[in-house]
Amino acid sequence: SYLPSNWLSALGLYAWAQVDESSDNNSLIHPARKFTYVAPKDGDDTYVVFIIGETTRWDHMGIFGYERNTTPKLAQEKNLAAFRGYSCDTATKLSLRCMFVREGGADNNPQRTLKEQNVFAVLKQLGFSSDLYAMQSEMWFYSNTMADNISYREQIGAEPRNRGKTVDDMLLIDEMQNSLAQNPEGKHLIILHTKGSHFNYTQRYPRSYAQWKPECIGVDSGCTKAQMINSYDNSVTYVDHFITSVFDQLRDKKAIVFYAADHGESINEREHLHGTPRNMAPPEQFRVPMLVWMSDKYLASPQHAQMFAHLKQQAEIKVPRRHVELYDTIMGCLGYTSPDGGINQNNNWCHIPDAQKVAAK
């Protein structure tokens, strides 16, 4: 796991981020200004959490039929809809540019130049308070979310309460608890950027999660494919624990949680790989789980219950989902509408076609 550095290092990272070409918010199109968004009548006490996963593949998750039970806790969640997803790119920095903007909001060029603000900035402009906590250091992206508070790996690891602790994704749960306590009224967004299943896989989980052995210890060049898959699958089980720990903080609240990993991974003999140019990348580098969870209080609304039933139905028939649908899905599942095209209903997983509404009646 990562050794935390001091605030000077954090400050240096922040300064570097300010010169990254993607952090120039002023040049981006603002969907909240371009379109009209009508808020749901019952949205003011809602909590929204988005978990950004890292390198986790759906075909290594038990809930999608993988032979190993890598997701025992998610398998118990009745309020969960789980989709086989496909990433918009194969590397973290590139996927972060295309997965949270409207379809077409990032260029199709190799560097994925941003053209529009992301959905988190839009929610901020629509009145949500927001906090972002990260086990990574993609500062250009964090500043683009317009979050009120941003804490990332180096800062979180250096906090006095975390002295002596392993710096892993579970430290984000403490940050989340504080964020919820400071925003008791709701209308609050929390973004959690995890380290997930990023190599070195064995560093992603504590020893108590070393279920499959022998593991890949050290550099990948000394590891067999079987060892790497054992370590990778152990990391997925820790991801399962982390995601359900997020749900645990929200069970008594009116809340909706989204999860999507940024990209997949190729795991071969003595090598692991992602970031292959997307026109050449093998399919496993695009395989990402995409999840939606709603609390009981969120589902108490008949409209939300209807949306969830639709999501479950889509998941059961294995409708594939894409990163570029997240913007419209987050807005749609929260109950926002847009009379002038601000939500593409074809990309909104919570949109129930009129024909289905009639059939339901």
UniProtKB/TrEMBL annotation:
CDD domains: LptA. One of its GO terms (biological process) is lipid A biosynthetic process. This is Kdo(2)-lipid A phosphoethanolamine 7''-transferase. It comes from the Bacteria. Residues 47-336 form the Sulfatase N-terminal domain. Catalyzes the addition of a phosphoethanolamine (pEtN) moiety to the outer 3-deoxy-D-manno-octulosonic acid (Kdo) residue of a Kdo(2)-lipid A. Phosphatidylethanolamines with one unsaturated acyl group function as pEtN donors and the reaction releases diacylglycerol. Keywords: Cell inner membrane, Cell membrane, Lipid A biosynthesis, Lipid biosynthesis, Lipid metabolism, Lipopolysaccharide biosynthesis, Membrane, Transferase, Transmembrane, Transmembrane helix. Its cofactor is Ca(2+). InterPro entries: Alkaline_phosphatase_core_sf, PEA_transf_C, PEA_transferase, Sulfatase_N. It is found in: Cell inner membrane. Belongs to the phosphoethanolamine transferase family. EptB subfamily. NCBIfam families: PRK11560.1. GO terms for molecular function: phosphatidylethanolamine:Kdo2-lipid A phosphoethanolamine transferase activity. It catalyses: alpha-Kdo-(2->4)-alpha-Kdo-(2->6)-lipid A (E. coli) + a 1,2-diacyl-sn-glycero-3-phosphoethanolamine = 7-O-[2-aminoethoxy(hydroxy)phosphoryl]-alpha-Kdo-(2->4)-alpha-Kdo-(2->6)-lipid A + a 1,2-diacyl-sn-glycerol; alpha-Kdo-(2->4)-alpha-Kdo-(2->6)-lipid IVA (E. coli) + a 1,2-diacyl-sn-glycero-3-phosphoethanolamine = 7-O-[2-aminoethoxy(hydroxy)phosphoryl]-alpha-Kdo-(2->4)-alpha-Kdo-(2->6)-lipid IVA (E. coli) + a 1,2-diacyl-sn-glycerol. The keyword Glycoprotein does not apply. Its EC number is 2.7.8.42. It is an enzyme of class 2 (transferase). The keyword Cell membrane applies. It is a multi-pass membrane protein. One of its GO terms (cellular component) is plasma membrane.
